[in-house]
Write a structure and sequence with these properties.
about 25% helix; eleven-stranded mixed sheet; about 525 residues
Length: about 525
Amino acid sequence: MLSLPAIFSNHMVFQREKNILLWGESDAQSVTAVIGDNKISTDVKDGKWEIELPPMEAGGPYELEVSDGNETKKYIDIMLGEVWLAGGQSNMELELQNSKNGKEVCANVKDEGVRYYYTPKVSWVGEELSEAEKQSEWQHCTPDTCKKWSAVAYYFAKKLSKELGVTVGIIGCNWGGTSASCWTSREFMEQETLLKPYLDKYDKAVKGQDIEEYIKAREDYIKYQAEFDKNVGHYYQTAENPTWDEAISLFGENQYPGPMGPRNETRPCGLYESLLKRVMPYTLRGFLYYQGEEDDHMPYTYYTMLSTLVRQWRHDWRDDELPFMCVQLPMFKNDGEPDYHNWPFIREAQMRLFKTVKNTGIAVILDKGEYGNIHPVEKDVVGERLCEQALYHVYKKNNEKSAFGPVYNSYETDKNKMILHFEHADGGMECRGQQLSGFEIAGDDKKYYVASAEICGNTIVVSAEDVEKPKYARYCWTNYAEVTLYGKNGIPAAPFRTSYDDGAVATGSRNEGVWE
């Protein structure tokens, strides 16, 4: 029996100008693929086969036929263009219809040169996943189909298609509330000592677990949580001044993410098996990634976690240089909770990845967070800034002036002042607000004080009365604050600190106690 993974369907987009990998299973001796003028055959080994089609230019539509002599699979309406995988958690998952002006955008959408494949969201490999994959296929952009697409990915692809004049295909592979550890393998995580707590925590939670009791508990949880989510959603839409505490008092405990075990979507390595593996190594240009919120309970190890994920994905796609475009977390703090100062470490890890790992990009969206809302809805700007990163780093179609806001580079001291130097600020910087805020400086004692700040070309001069000999400086080193420093292109300056040795610590986590 001839088979290919579910991601191969009518209306799919193939990556232009690269060898296109086809793979699957067959009980015959050989398999042949035909597309356009290309006809390639290969032997079947142990029931599995792979074919690499030669690079093709953008265009279409094409037809593809794959045959093993006994059975033929035919796919129609195939376009050659650009293909990106959109990974991460809820802010990548957030649907276009739920984004700012989303319903209006969906109602008036046209064929924007964008197509989308949504990897079936099933948290474990089994019959349920197989049935879901039978219903999955690449979709054209229509008012009905685009509603559930990732808003960030849609706006990225729409802009990219317009800039390049080719069809852009997005592979949606994301799930809300998931750690980066969900999207990597145990093998890769075990190579990093700093990541051991993720695995140890899970192993402890499932030790001695009765699988039948677990499945029953999970089924009960799914029913309960669906009702809870429905009630809370209605409450937030209709209450005059909704609060989380009142929601809990009205509708009971929030049991998310449910009993930990081999079907829980938040378990380490789980979605790597049930989602990512189902689409790898489909030939693509690169990865888009918006995640980090769910790892704020381990902020000091996030750089290791994120860089391991990048290494994992590139390994699985057989290309150590595949571009990885990352979204840096915006401002966020829940109403009524302390500022734990843990998100700055996540943002720093994301910037550090950009600076230390080749072929990466970073979309700074510090200004697009919303107080009290971990799911800010202005996703068009996020997608477009991601696209600017891709256009600059991958396609060489623009320059740094449109891709970056100011990024801290170095400092010098002058008596009681620090002079902060920035990259990507040759055109100058500007204050958006009554005055520059968010700057702090410290001396040898590492005790920070609010600093006054002044823009001088592509530098910022900072000082504070209580710091006679400044040694350390930082900007927006907080979970939530007003964003005031921007480049002339309207992109905010990235948050930073001048030294990793400044004594900064996180004081807690929104996620403390999850599934313990």
